[in-house]
Design goal:
By secondary structure, this protein is an alpha+beta fold. It is built from eight helices and 15 strands. The strands form four sheets. The protein has a seven-stranded mixed β-sheet, with helices on one face. Strands 12-6-14 form a three-stranded antiparallel β-sheet. It has a three-stranded antiparallel β-sheet with strand order 8-7-11. Strand 9 (200-202) and strand 10 (209-211) form a beta hairpin. The protein binds fe (ii) ion. Fe (ii) ion binds next to loops.
């Protein structure tokens, strides 16, 4: 069965048919999915009840896994529930119990409810993220996506000129500070030093420009912090207006793949007494977008 994609939203996001993520993909299937990602930026694959190993194999069709053993990971391997190559975005601790409301890992996770692009705080930000929904709460827990190409296109000409050459500083510290979580260790503060990223990026395949925003962005080079924070807040509000947002309502075994270079996303609230077991594989970007001169 050939790969086909139907649109889920007027601006972006599509649902894929004809792909079985248990099986190795043919080069034609990989090419069709990549073309779909270039166009839709978010793709949904339904009824993919896959293992972690199958998710990793599926992900590797599209490039190298992101590896961040040395930078910016708050839970060390022995404290983790899942094996290498796949990140745990559940609300479970290493023993499979729902995390304490006071668990600082939970505080870090709560920050994902702010609009962001994965790993924008790393020198090489992520390309695609692939999230597998294994156990879905009965209420809430949508993932929302915003099309940052549409957001860029809708800027007025004056603002387009203003943002063109701006450079932002991204850090997990900024996004966690925004929810009042400032109790970071010296080691974490050292690991999360701000990383510079351009505010406008151009997609390598389509040439489309997009705003590279995230809650991790907390400064603009050459600007005062209050001026920068207000401008970033205004841009984020513009970029996440409802016309540019697709809200994904999870069904068990959905696999959702998004392009961090063209979208932002955020997690939505759910009943924390229920299990949410979602697991993410992440594809590394190609190279730093900008020289880090700090
Ligand atoms: Fe994320």
């Amino acid at each position: 069965m050939p790969v086909s994609i139907r649109s889920l939203h007027p601006v972006f996001a599509g649902e894929v048919a004809g792909v079985d993520c248990h099986q190795p993909l043919s080069p034609a299937e990989v090419a069709a999915i990549e073309a779909g990602m270039d166009q839709y930026a978010v793709l949904v694959f339904r009824e993919q009840n896959i293992t972690d190993e199958e998710q990793i194999t599926f992900t590797r069709h599209f490039g190298e896994l992101e590896s961040y053993s040395t930078l910016g990971h708050i839970r060390r391997r022995p404290e983790q529930r899942l094996g290498p190559g796949i990140a745990d975005f559940s609300n479970l601790d290493k023993d499979g119990r729902i995390m304490s409301v006071e668990d600082r890992v939970w505080f870090f996770k709560l920050g994902d409810r702010l609009w962001h692009s994965d790993s924008s705080f790393r020198p090489v930000p992520a390309k695609y993220s692939i999230l597998s929904g294994r156990v879905i709460p009965s209420w809430g827990a949508n993932t929302e996506f915003a099309d940052m190409r549409a957001a860029y296109d809708a800027l007025d000409e004056r603002t387009k000129a203003e943002v063109e050459d701006l450079v932002c500083e991204h850090s997990l510290i900024y996004s966690r500070e925004a929810i009042g979580f400032t109790d970071l260790t010296a080691e974490e503060i050292a690991a999360f030093q701000p990383i510079r990223q351009p505010l406008v990026r151009t997609h390598p395949a389509t040439g489309r420009k997009s705003l590279f925003l995230a809650a991790h962005a907390g400064a603009i080079v050459g600007w005062t912090i209050p001026e920068a924070r207000m401008f970033l807040r205004d841009l984020t509000e513009h970029a996440t207006q409802r016309d540019f947002v697709y809200s994904h309502e999870w069904r068990p075994y959905d696999l959702v793949m998004w392009d961090n270079r063209q979208t932002m996303h955020r997690a939505r609230r759910f009943d924390r007494d229920e299990v949410r077991d979602v697991r993410r594989t992440t594809l590394a970007g190609d190279a730093p977008l900008i020289e880090q001169s700090m």
